[in-house]
Design brief:
The protein is an alpha+beta fold. 26% of the residues lie in helices and 26% in strands. The model has no long low-confidence stretch (mean pLDDT 92).
Length: 258
């Protein structure tokens, strides 16, 4: 199926999928259909369409919106997703808020189009922006190898000028909490892992030596095991409990509270 799909829709020389739209790139990336040798070209085409062609805006409807934001995180470009989220010109959620919307509109341009229903209505009601807030900004994720939150992954992304996040998810074993706040080069993370579960926690930091847990060096903290440094984050295995990590951030993720 993968071979047939790409033979029909993909130009391997350019990494362009037929129709050359954001949705046309997001879906193959989401479902693992992109050949390894074409992956970077496809990613570059998606990012270029968002940042250049559409000047930092999305162009997807119901189908693409379900996958676009998390795909951008998964391909290592949550910064592009943040650019989309913070737009205030149409089409964007910020535009709706600026027009005093109290719910998400059924169409990106409901304020300018004929109010009657048509085949293009209900474009974005199923858009998973809220899930992206939890999974990327708060970093609360399930482990694909241990579904049902038996093992939790806490991997927050510090994006743009966002200074703090407070989030929780009530899973089958109890409440999972991921709160963080950054002030200059200092980060504080408050994490709760419910009973009878374990977690992998990514603490953004310039190095492992700068990380403390409840005021003590994290390497000496009870229930905390240092695993590795990965992409400017110290990675720890932890058991159930309440943790307060603090760290010094690397230059590329410093920010002020907002």
């Amino acid at each position: 199926l993968k071979l047939a799909f790409n033979k029909k829709f993909l130009d391997p020389a350019t990494g362009v999928y037929l129709s050359n739209t954001q949705c046309a790139y997001a879906l193959p990336l989401a479902f693992g259909l992109v050949p390894d040798e074409c992956r970077q070209k496809v990613i570059d085409n998606l990012v270029n369409d968002i940042l250049v062609t559409h000047k930092g805006h999305l162009s997807v409807g119901l189908i693409g919106m379900q996958w676009l934001m998390q795909v951008l995180t998964d391909i290592g470009r949550p910064d592009v997703a943040w650019t989309i989220v913070t737009q205030t010109t149409r089409p964007s959620w910020g535009y709706m808020i600026g027009k005093d919307a109290t719910t998400i509109w059924e169409r990106w341009d409901s304020d300018t189009r004929d109010p009657g229903m048509n085949s293009e209505a209900l474009l974005i009601q199923a858009g998973n922006l809220d899930a992206w807030f939890y999974q990327t900004l708060a970093g609360i994720n399930y482990d694909r190898e241990q579904p049902g939150f038996k093992h939790v992954v806490i991997k927050p992304q510090l994006l743009g000028d966002l200074g703090c996040v407070k989030a929780h998810h009530d899973g089958p074993y109890g409440r999972i909490v991921s709160n963080w706040k950054r002030e200059g080069d200092k980060l504080t993370m408050e994490v709760t892992i419910p009973a009878n579960t374990t977690a992998t926690v990514y603490v953004p930091a310039k190095d492992a030596a700068s990380v403390t847990e409840s005021g003590k060096p994290a390497v000496n903290a009870i229930g905390v095991k240092f695993l590795r440094m990965e992409n400017s984050a110290a990675v720890y295995a932890v058991g159930s409990g309440v943790y307060r990590f603090q760290s010094v951030l690397s230059e590329n993720v410093k920010g002020e509270s907002k």
